[in-house]
Amino acid sequence: MKRTLVREILTRGCRAGGTAAVLAGLLTFAGVQRAHATLYTLKSPTDVVLGEDKSVVTVYEDTLYDLARKFSLGSEELIRVNPGIDPWLPGAGKTLVVPDRHILPPGPHEGIVVNLPEHRLYYYPKPKRGGPIEVITYPVSIGKMDWRTPLGITHVIGKQKNPVWYPPASVRKEHLEAGDPLPASVPSGPDNPLGLFAMRLAAGNGTYLIHGTNNPIAVGLAVTHGCIRMYPDDVAALFPLIPVGTVVRLINEPIKVAWLDGELLLEAHPPVDAQGQSFEPNIDQFADMLRGAVGETTVAIHWDYAREVLQKADGVLATVALEADDPNLPPPAADPASAPAPPGDVPTSGAGR
C-alpha cells in the first residue's frame, strides 16, 4: 500500500554518458494515473500567457505526488501552492489548487527551452504550413549544471531507446563506501535510472541527457547531477517529436512578466544556485528584476502586493500592476525601496541571503 511507503527516498541523480545516475528507490503507485503533458494552442505568435489554474477535491487514496503526476506537475510545484497539506496523507475532501497557468519564458519560441528555477521544459513544434502555433510543456528535474557555460544554447546530438547506464567510478566508489555496491553497467529495465528514452545534449562534451527515470516521485526536484529528468510517459511522448539537431536553450529566469488586457502579470519561482538547489529569494533583487522586466512602460505597480508575490515565489500568476493610462487606475502603493533614505541613513546592500 502506498500509505506505508517510506517518505524519505535517496535520489542522488544522474550524470550520463559514460556518466549516469545513482540507483534510487523505485516507487510504483498502484492505480496512479499517467502524467500527460499540457498542449497549448496559441491564438497568435504574440501570445505568452497560457492555461488556467484549476482545483481538485481529493479522495482518500490520493497523495500530492500522485496528483502532481496526473496533472503534469512536479511534486514540489503542487506542494508549494498547497501549504499545510500533508503530501502523503492529504485526506479526503480537501480542495487543492492545481497551477496550470504559465507565462512563456523570454527568448525565441523554438526548439526546447528549459527554465531551471521553474523546473519546467517547453517544446515548440515547428508549425505546419497554415497550421496552429503550439507549445507543449512538461515538469522536469534539474541538477548541477557544472559545464563551463552552464546556461545558454546547446542542441540534441543523439537519441537512444533503452539506454544502458554505466555508473562512473566516483559514483561506484560512493556507493561501495555506503555498503551499496553498484554494477559496472545496468541494462535497460525497471532498475535503470535513465528510464527507457534518452536524448544527448552537446553541452559538457555530450555528458548530459534529457531522459526518463525509474523514480518518478522525484520529478520537479533538484536531484540530478546535471541531467534533465522527466516522467517516463512524458519522455516517451517527447522522444519521437525531437529530431537530432533540435536547439535546446537552458535559462535561469526565476521571475517572468507579461501584459494581458492592460494588467501586468507576475510569475515568480524560487531562484536556484549553481548546484541546482532552490533558495529563498532576496526581495530587493527580485524587485530590481521586476523593474527591469517592466522597462520603460508607464505602469503603476502595487509594490506591497508585488513583494508579497515575490516572497511567496510559488509560481502562481498574479496581477501586480495596471497600465498607467487606465482611467480606473487606483493610486499605487509606494515602493519602500525607491524612497529616499532619511538623513544619516546608509542604504543597505541587496546581496542575497
Tell me about this structure.
There is one protein chain. It contains seven helices and 21 strands. It is α+β, with helices and mostly antiparallel strands and 353 residues long. It has two domains: 2-251, L,D-transpeptidase catalytic domain-like (Beta Barrel), CATH 2.40.440; 255-338, no CATH class. The chain has a nine-stranded mixed beta sheet. A four-stranded antiparallel beta sheet has the order 18-19-21-20. A two-stranded antiparallel ribbon has the order 1-2. The longest helix has 12 residues, at 283-294.
Task: Pick out its properties.
353 residues, alpha+beta, L,D-transpeptidase catalytic domain-like, nine-stranded mixed sheet, four-stranded antiparallel sheet, 26% strand, disordered N terminus
Strand content: 25-35%
Mean pLDDT over all positions: 78
**Helix-strand pattern, N to C?**
EEEEEHHEEEEEEEHEHEEEHEEEHEHE
Structurally, the number of domains stands at 2
Helical residue percent?
10-25%
CATH class type of the largest domain: Mainly Beta
Instruction: Give the distance, in angstroms, between the N- and C-terminal Cα atoms.
Output: 41 Å
